[in-house]
Design goal:
Layout (H helix, E strand, L loop, with lengths): L2 E4 L2 E8 L2 E8 L2 H16 L13 H4 L5 H13 L6 H14 L10 H13 L4 H22 L22 H13 L3 H13 L3 H5 L3 H9 L4 E4 L8 E4 L2 H12 L12 H15 L8 H12 L4 H8 L4 H4 L7 H11 L1
Antiparallel strand pairs: 1-2, 2-3, 4-5
Helix pairs in contact: 1-4, 3-4, 3-6, 4-6, 7-8, 7-12, 8-11, 8-13, 10-11
Length: 339
C-alpha cells in the first residue's frame, strides 16, 4: 500500500489497472488504508472511485474520541503485525461506514449496535460473519474503555452460528488440484499443498517454516516439525509424513537456514489457489480447506478426537467436535455394546 505521511496527515497514491489514484488529508494511517481498499475494490468492479467529501486532518481530530481514532489505535496495538491485517482493515471499514468515522465512540449504545446487526443481516451476512465483525467492534470498545473509560459499555448480542457442512477435499479432488497446479506451472503450490494436507498447518504457519526448522528435525532424527508461532499461541510439534518431509528437505537444501522455505505472501498463495479452484469450479473454497481436509481424514481413519485436537493445535475441543460426525464407526461400536 502506497501510504505516506504528509502535512501532519496521511496521503494515498497508487496505480491500479492503469489508473493513478491519489487522495490526501487522512487523519490516520488506518483510515488511509481503509479508503485504499475501497478504492481498489471500486476500480475492480468498474465503478468510479468515491473521494471523501471532507478531509479531516490529524490536528482537527486528535482531541476527539472518534470511532475512527479508536479503530486506528486498536489496529496498531492488536492487528497491524498479523500475517494478514487486511481482514481486520475490511471489518474496520464496515464498522466505520455504518457508525460514522467521526462519531464519538461514547455515543455507541446497544440499540445502535443491534441496528448494525440488522444491517449486516440485510446484506445476507451469516451468523459467523456477523460475529467476526462484532468481535472487531467489541475489541475496539474494550480497548477504548481501558484507556479513557467509557461511561457505559453497550451490550453486544452475538449471533447463533450454524455449523454448516465441513467441506474437505476428496482424494480424487486432491489429484485434480495437484495436476492443475502442475499444468499452470505453480511449483510453489505443488509443494505447499501436500505439506498443508499432511500436517494440517495453518497458512501463516506454513509460510513461516524455515530451513532451521527442518535442520533441527534432521538433527534429532525426528519426523516432528516445531511450530513456534501460530494463531492459538500454542507452540506445538507436528508429525510430518515422508511425502511432506521430502518436500521440506528439498526446498531447505537451496536456502540459508534462517530463510523461509516458501517465498509467498498470503495474498500470493490465495491468488494462485483461486486460479486453481476457479479452473476446477470448486466454488466457495478457501485455502483453509486443506486444514479441514487434514482433520477430516484423521477422524475418518479412526484417530481419537482428543489426539486430533492435539495434532491440529485446536485451542478448544469444541473446534475439534465439528468433525465428530465423520466417525460413524464409533456410533456403531456404541450400539454393539447395547445389543
Amino acid at each position: 500500500m502506497a501510504i505516506t505521511p504528509k502535512n501532519g496527515a496521511f496521503a494515498v497514491a497508487f496505480m491500479f489497472k492503469g489508473q493513478r489514484v491519489y487522495c490526501g488529508g487522512f487523519a490516520s494511517e488506518a483510515a488511509a488504508q481503509l479508503w485504499e481498499l475501497q478504492a481498489r475494490e471500486d476500480i475492480r468492479k468498474g465503478l468510479d472511485v468515491t473521494y471523501p467529501e471532507t478531509k479531516t486532518t490529524a490536528a482537527t481530530t486528535q482531541d476527539k474520541e472518534t470511532v475512527s481514532k479508536w479503530l486506528d489505535k486498536t489496529y496498531r496495538v492488536f492487528w497491524a503485525d498479523r500475517s494478514d491485517p487486511e481482514k481486520a482493515l475490511q471489518k474496520m471499514r464496515v464498522i466505520g461506514e455504518f457508525f460514522g468515522r467521526d462519531t464519538n465512540i461514547r455515543d455507541l449504545n446497544t440499540e445502535w449496535i443491534d441496528d448494525f446487526i440488522s444491517h449486516l443481516k440485510s446484506l445476507n451476512n451469516s451468523g459467523a460473519t456477523i460475529n467476526r465483525k462484532l468481535a472487531t467492534l467489541s475489541k475496539t470498545l474494550n480497548y477504548a474503555d481501558e484507556c479513557i473509560g467509557l461511561t457505559r459499555k453497550p451490550k453486544i448480542h452475538r449471533q447463533k452460528e450454524s455449523q454448516g457442512r465441513v467441506r474437505y477435499l476428496l482424494e480424487d479432488e486432491e489429484k485434480l488440484v495437484l495436476n492443475t497446479a502442475e499444468h499452470f506451472g505453480l511449483k510453489d503450490m505443488q509443494d505447499c499443498i501436500p505439506v498443508f494436507l499432511d500436517t494440517g498447518v495453518r497458512r501463516s504457519e506454513l509460510l513461516n517454516i524455515t530451513g532451521l526448522d527442518v535442520f533441527e528435525s534432521e538433527q534429532a532424527n525426528s519426523n516432528m516439525l516445531h511450530v513456534w508461532v501460530n494463531k492459538a499461541d500454542l507452540p506445538r510439534s507436528v508429525p510430518v509424513t515422508k511425502r511432506a518431509m521430502e518436500i521440506l528437505k528439498r526446498r531447505a537444501k537451496h536456502k540459508p537456514k534462517d530463510a523461509k522455505l516458501f517465498d509467498m505472501t498470503p495474498k500470493t498463495l490465495e491468488r494462485q489457489w483461486n486460479r486453481i479452484r476457479w479452473h476446477l469450479e470448486l466454488k466457495d473454497v478457501t485455502p483453509h480447506i486443506f486444514r479441514h481436509t487434514t482433520a477430516s481424514r484423521l477422524v475418518q481413519r479412526g484417530v481419537p478426537l482428543v489426539t486430533v485436537k492435539q495434532f491440529m493445535g485446536h485451542k478448544s475441543i469444541q473446534t475439534t467436535l465439528r468433525y465428530s460426525h465423520l466417525c460413524p464407526k464409533n456410533l456403531s461400536d456404541a450400539v454393539a455394546v447395547l445389543e
